[in-house]
Amino acid sequence: MTTPATGQTWNTEAYAANGRFVATLAGGVVALLAPQAGEHILDLGCGDGALTEQLAATGAIVTGVDASPSMLAAAHERILRSPASFSVDHHDATALPYNHQFDAVFSNAALHWITGISGHQAMLSGVHRALRSENPQARFVAEMGGHGNVAAIRTALQATLTPFHIDAEATAASFFPTPALYRRLLESAGFTVQSIELIPRPTPLPNGMESWLNTFRNGVLDRLNPHDRAVAVTNTIALLEPILCDANGNWTADYVRLRFHATLR
Question: Which domains does the chain show, CATH number per domain?
Answer without folding.
Answer: 12-149+174-205+254-264 (3.40.50.150)
